[in-house]
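Usage

Read records sequentially. Each one opens with the input sequence:
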Amino acid sequence: MGLFSSQFSNVVEWEEFREDMIFYKWHNDEIKKGSKLIIRPGQDAVFMFNGRTEGIFKDEGSYDIESEIIPFLSTLKGFRFGFNSGMRAEVLFINTKEFTVKWGTKSAINIPTPQLPGGMPIRANGTFNFKVNDYVKLIDKIAGVKDSYLVEDVKIRITAILDQLIMKWIVKEGKDMFNLQANSFDIANGIKTDLDMQLFDTGMAITGFNIMSFTYPEEIQEMINKNASHSMIGDMNRYQQASMTEGIASGKVHGGGVASDMAGMMMGMQMANQMMQNMNNAGNNQSTNGNSSIKPNFCPNCGQKTGEANFCPNCGQKLI
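and closes with the structure output:
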């Protein structure tokens, strides 16, 4: 009896688990008496009988199918294994993790822009996240006809429409074509919403979408970099003065060559101009102060003629 029992028993499990596999369908001729169901961490098990979902089991562990699983199935609660009989059923194992996928545009996307009649050719890359959230829809649309499904299958479906969505949300948001990275968060949120709708009927959901970078053609990128550097510098005269001073101080501009002579001449001219400005300012200040210390001919207090004295001889008013 023990010999026959061991011959008819089997183990229902996801034997060759893969991190990039979304689900795996176990099916055999029949599940026999004494069979065990093994659910590992990160897995859920869905029992299917005659194409119907009979029960979903989410707690990891090892279970006796006859005594611990069948009593909880919807239409098989009264099923009993005979000596040589088994149960024809399928078990769908679902990977419950959140998957992260890298994406990148296959070719440049021409985004319409007034500055360039033919459009701005850009590339982009980033990541998106998804997971299974509705087992009934998953079985109805995919698992009902497939034994397994890979992350690559979802990636192919997503990237097939991604270029159009990137163009849609860049144009829709009316963003600055030369500063897309600053607006990548808003663009990514719009794309995430559309992708989630695309996967809605498959039982999977987009849980995140990120744009890591936008890439422009080389000549456009050089123009953007140059414009950014000019904005950062601000006052070009001060920038040139600081660069020249730093070059001489660091020894990068030295010797008796043309560069050194030019540097010395420029700094000499700048110093001379500064000295002339200082002298002019000092002369103006002295002139103003001198005018305020001129002795009046008549006392401002009593009108007495002052003469050479520093004080009024009549009332004693200070004259200087």
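Summary fields computed downstream for this record:
- The chain has a mean pLDDT of 79.
- The chain has eight helices and 14 strands.
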